[in-house]
Amino acid sequence: MQINGLPVVDAKKKVKITISSRDVTKGKTKDPAACAAAVACLREVKNCTQARVHIGRTYLKIGKRWVRFHTPQSLRGEIVAFDRGANFEPGDYVLTPMQPSHRATGKAQGGNAKKKKGKNRPYHITVGVRHFGANR
Fold this sequence. Notes:
The protein is an alpha+beta fold. It has three helices and seven strands; from the N terminus they run E-E-E-H-H-E-E-E-H-E. The chain has helices at residues 21-26, 36-44, 73-83, and strands spanning 2-3, 6-10, 15-19, 48-53, 57-62, 65-70, 91-95. A five-stranded mixed sheet has the order 1-2-6-5-4, covered by helices on one side. It has a two-stranded antiparallel sheet with strand order 3-7. The longest helix has 11 residues, at 73-83. The two termini are 14 Å apart. The relative contact order is 0.23.
């Protein structure tokens, strides 16, 4: 996987960020590169030159590569509220490495499981928030 021609690697360690009220004031809604969390990452993470905070993943450009983190549920809730026009509550958040089952290995995930017959479970899509994916 690449973002703007640079490789994406999975994080090895957790990163704690503190989002301040000043970050919230500077942040822009529906913009993963300029939201309050991205502003806080740029300020607090050493050698971070760009940040993209999405609903499920956070990408930090450190050096000549993008480091991929899992966006925690607590931060996800604040992002959804912020993008929909509510307040973003300042606080401490921990970006964690991806679980092994969610890491990008370059191979297809899963097996040749047979499809279940019957009704599919409804799929929920959160609307009114930033786009999904790193390349948008």
